[in-house]
Structure formats: structure tokens, C-alpha cells
Prior knowledge:
Blueprint: E1 3-7, E2 10-12, E3 18-25, E4 34-39, E5 46-51, E6 57-59, E7 67-72, E8 77-82, E9 91-97, E10 100-101, E11 105-109
Amino acid sequence: QVQLVESGGGLVQPGDRLILSCAASGTLISRIPITWYRQSPGKQREFVAIMTTGAVSNYADSVKGRFSLSRDNAKNTVHLQMNSLKPEDTAVYYCNWGAIWGQGTLVTVSS
């Protein structure tokens, strides 16, 4: 059974950097596309970024140029590096593959 577990969230100040991780079990993460979503209070879940099996990444316009994805096959993990964080990036971040969702990790950007 495939499981995804996010980690790395926390409280940071505007302009700071944070790296989230999505660790997979039950499959090789290099064999599945991993999508990151986020959900802010009172808002719908929104697409953030996706890494394909070919390690090609695409990003939402709101994070393009600030966020980047990388994959560590040895650790079976995809990382979401978030630079220049803004208060509007505050959300619970989820990684996803098909019907499989992680439990989410909270990112709070506040001064």
C-alpha cells in the first residue's frame, strides 16, 4: 500500500526559506508523479507544483520563481524548497499521487 508523509512545516518570517519533504513508502517515488497542493483557511485546496516521473517540474504562477522541486531517489523523497515566503503562502501543504494524500504539514508565514 502506497503512503505519503509530509514533513518540514513550521513558523517562519516573510522572506524566509523552508523545505518541505514528501516521503513515499510502498513504491519507488521515481515511478509516480508527485503533486503538491496547499489549503489556506477558508479557501479551496489549490495546486502548487508537480514533479513528473521524468523529473520535469511545473509550478503554479503564484509560486513560480520562488518554489522549486527536487527528488532524492535514495531517500524515496520529493522536496519542495520554498524561498522568499510570503504571508499568503500560509497553508497546510499536501503531497499527492492519485487518490493517495499525505496528512499535510502546516506552513505559517508571519512576522
